[in-house]
Write a structure and sequence with these properties.
heterodimer, A: alpha+beta, four-stranded parallel beta sheet, 17 helices, 25 strands, globular, B: mainly alpha, 13 helices, about 0% strand
Chain lengths: ~525, ~325
């Protein structure tokens, strides 16, 4: 039988694992030698086992009314220590610049006065929250949790695809993926030094506590979920459980005199920090959508009064829409006086007639994205679109150029993935998660690698047939390892108590049958 | 009306309780520690394995470096070692075989099915990872506990079963903490210790997400509500012993089995939590000693049996 990677044919893109057919990149060598001798059946059995672990643990999503395990590919994605160092510095740089930008937008507005970003960009943004002006976070943090989506281009360079500063989700899959992988494929881990991911909940809790209103030394932290029917409810529950805090719904909280409390059997108890997984629009029916039944009336005023901290802050969406994205390199230069460590994908703003005309002329050579779409919704990939789709998007852009951006199509890097026909290249991206506690921006080593499972597909969202991969960051081999001689473990064996009978002979009893 | 029960049966129930708990706890410990070894890139596998073997009562083979697979072999699959999971389950089944008329048919079947399923589980685990074996063991221990809970009368037989289980819990809790106290240079994270005792989520809900060593030690030794804490298990054991032999004396406790348990329980109950970590090694030593003393006294008092006498023919 052929070995696992013998039939692997590389696609027209940067391959994460192979430099050339049969020639794995250095970071992948040990993985390659472990997997290569396995048979297709071996792989399949393990893949089934992975799926079973997810089904048992309830790591599922609803697809066509059916509960399905979130597809986890058993071939991990590996990032070397040096590359991860670059990603860490780049994401940190970006998050800090965007924090400064948000503080500016909801504060003095110097960035507009200095002409770096036009003010109308903000005032026409659907995510600009006038309500957030003047809310000053106690430790200055607005982006407690962020997910900066990265892709690797044809030359193997990481590029930023988009920023998620509102309620980025997916971190639960990082935690569950690692857990399922170590359970199901322990052999893979024995040869590799993989950075652990289970620090995340503790880091998150630390950052949330650090965000508490002034004067609160032992803050009460809660996770606010829209409810069990939300697609990410599993994640909300997991994070609350791992942090040991309450998972609340809007109806569990009451707000009076600008203080938020939760209803408990022991009466009402003040809440100081809310990790909210409810969109701005639904958060407070007094300020946003009046028909929201999952929000808490008055919570915005409580935040303004400084009695409760919201993570992430209200109005962050203004800094992560796709139009503002085109300004982020300038923001990094403006606020930090540094050059961006990772580039954006080449993007056209449709803000003058020449550009619009140019893009409309060559529509089938661009990726067109609505500026406030999320989850891959509304994206048109020019080279793959048919006439009807192009006509529709042409009309939409002509009607509202402010609502669109045009990007160069990037062939996302590929990673070997187990599909029905065997192991084949599939496109992937990467969402590292960053936590800002006010002193430092910490990155969860690895993050979520999403895979577009249909052949050739470039959209990796789970709502569009995406799966994921366990993402390994290799520990720095240069770092000094505390190697201790095994002789140091002269621990005395603690003997066990054993039933007397269990030590005794059974020989005589055996002869007593007739 | 109180009637005694056969000493032999009582002893079997006591040991079923102990062995099942041992299998369950060992499975949890292996799951947590071996899992951590895989996840921690800086782990010294050989050293961690040796420490683990020592606290779980098994001498480490000399010579070559140890890996997780060796630990599974010695503490998971070795049928001849009563401190391995398979050995403990075998011993529990043997004890149940001798007490079949007393324990419910369902309990016997549960033990028997478990025993017969082990070889297949072992094969699966060798292919797909130890978790499949360890998870099965935990599950079967829970099934047995549930069956006992719902099918046994709360008579003396029940008390011996629970007494055995509680005593083993105390013993295992002190072993688990020993790895922290005795081999600090080799100690896993406290979070792993919590997981090894099924206490992680309960701890988080009680103390929040900050895992402070002193709080963990406190939780596993002194917590009044968590059923696997040493104090909780000691209290349960004490209740069983008191029910088995209600005290009539006006002063002191005559029951030699209850005395060491009660002394240990009060010692822990009134321990100063502020200095708990410094005193941990001392606490653990006395805990181990109390378990051994109590077990010996219980055996002497309740399970006494004539040792087989060998008759010698007098030469004329």
């Amino acid at each position: 039988m052929a070995d696992v990677f013998d039939e692997y044919s590389m696609a027209e893109a940067w391959d994460e694992m192979f430099a050339a057919p049969g020639d794995p990149r250095p970071a992948y060598r040990s993985l390659f030698s472990t997997l290569q001798p396995l048979s297709g059946t071996d792989l399949r059995v393990r893949a089934d086992q992975l799926a079973r672990v997810f089904t048992d643990r309830g790591v599922t999503f609803a697809y066509a009314g059916e509960e399905r395990p979130f597809p986890l590919d058993l071939i991990p994605r590996i990032i070397s220590a040096a590359e991860w160092d670059l990603v860490t510095r780049a994401v940190r740089q970006r998050v800090i610049a965007l924090e400064r930008f948000l503080a500016d937008v909801y504060g003095p507005g110097e960035v507009f006065a200095d002409g770096v970003v036009p003010r109308r960009l903000i005032t026409t943004s659907a995510h600009f929250a006038r309500e957030a002006v003047g809310i000053e976070p106690a430790n200055g943090v607005r982006v407690h949790i962020s997910g900066v989506d990265l892709i690797r281009d044809e030359e193997g360079r990481f590029r930023v695809l988009e920023d998620n500063l509102r309620i980025p989700s997916g971190v639960s899959y990082v935690i569950e993926n690692r857990r399922a992988m170590t359970q199901t494929l322990p052999n893979l881990f024995t040869e590799a030094r993989v950075m652990p991911v289970d620090d995340y909940p503790a880091r998150l809790l630390h950052a949330l506590r650090a965000a508490a209103p002034e004067g609160i030394t032992d803050p009460c932290v809660v996770v606010l979920t829209p409810g069990v029917y939300n697609a990410a409810y599993f994640e909300h529950a997991l994070l609350a459980r791992l942090m040991g805090v309450e998972l609340v719904e809007g109806r569990d909280l009451v707000c009076s005199n600008n203080v938020v409390r939760m209803r408990t059997t022991q009466g009402e108890r003040p809440v100081h920090v809310i990790y909210r997984r409810v969109d701005d629009d639904f958060l407070d029916p007094l300020h946003f959508r009046p028909d929201s039944v999952i929000g808490i009336p008055g919570i915005v005023n409580a935040a303004r009064a400084g009695n409760v901290a919201l993570a992430n802050a209200i109005g962050n969406g203004v800094a992560d829409d796709k139009l503002l994205y085109t300004y982020v390199p300038d923001l990094i230069r403006y606020y930090l006086h540094e050059e961006p460590l990772l580039s954006n994908v080449e993007t056209h703003r449709l803000d003058n007639d020449d550009v619009v005309a140019h893009v409309l002329d060559k529509l089938d050579t661009f990726v067109l994205k609505p500026v406030d779409g999320a989850g891959g919704k509304g994206i048109v990939i020019g080279p793959k679109a048919d006439e009807d789709e192009l006509a529709t998007v042409r009309a939409a852009i002509t009607a509202d150029p402010r609502g669109w951006i045009a990007q160069r199509p990037v062939a996302l890097s590929t990673s070997p993935t187990l599909v029905d026909q065997g192991v084949a290249p599939r496109h992937i991206d990467l969402r590292p998660f960053a936590i800002n506690d006010g002193d430092d921006v910490w990155l969860l080593p690895g993050g979520l690698t999403r895979v577009a499972l249909p052949e050739g597909a470039l959209v990796v969202n789970s709502s569009q047939g995406g799966g994921s991969k366990d993402t390994w960051v290799l520990a720095d081999e240069q770092a000094p390892l505390a190697v201790r001689p095994s002789a140091a473990y002269a621990v005395d064996v603690i003997p066990y108590d054993v039933g007397i009978r269990d030590a005794g002979p059974a020989s005589q009893m055996e002869g007593q049958q007739q | 009306m109180r009637t005694g029960m056969l000493s032999r049966i009582a002893e079997s129930l006591f040991w079923i309780g102990r062995y099942i708990e041992r299998a369950d706890d060992t499975a949890r410990i292996l799951d947590a520690f071996l899992g951590r070894l895989l996840e921690d890139p800086w782990a010294d596998e050989d050293g961690a394995c040796r420490a683990l073997l020592a606290i779980l009562g098994t001498g480490a083979p000399g010579g070559s470096r140890l890996a997780a697979g060796d630990v599974m072999e010695l503490l998971g699959f070795d049928q001849n070692n009563p401190s391995s999971i398979t050995g403990a389950l075998a011993a529990a089944r043997e004890n149940a075989r001798g007490a079949r008329e007393t324990i419910s048919a369902e309990m016997w079947e549960c033990l028997n099915i478990t025993w017969h399923a082990l070889p297949a589980r072992r094969k699966t685990a060798e292919r797909l990872g130890p978790n499949l074996f360890l998870g099965f063991v935990r599950e079967r221990a829970a099934v047995l506990a549930g069956l006992a809970e719902s099918t046994m009368s709360r008579d003396d037989g029940w008390r011996f079963l629970i007494l055995g289980r509680s005593l083993e819990r105390v013993d295992m809790a002190s072993r688990l903490l020993s790895i922290q106290a005795l081999t600090p240079e080799h100690a896993p994270e406290w979070r792993t210790v919590l997981r090894a005792c099924g206490a992680d989520e309960s701890f988080l809900r009680t103390h929040g997400g900050q895992v402070i060593p002193q709080r963990v030690a406190e939780f596993l030794l002194l917590d009044r509500l968590f059923p696997r804490s040493a104090l909780h298990a000691l209290t349960t054991a004490e209740e069983c012993l008191r029910a088995l032999a209600p005290a009539t004396e006006r002063a002191g406790v005559a029951d030699a089995a209850r005395r060491p348990i009660g002394q240990m329980r009060t010692r822990l109950e009134y321990a100063d939590t502020a200095t708990l970590l410094e005193e941990l090694p001392a606490h653990l030593r006395t805990l181990q000693r109390a378990c051994a003393t109590a077990s010996a006294a219980i055996t002497a008092r309740y399970f006494e049996q004539t040792t087989a006498v060998t008759w010698a023919h007098e030469g004329v």
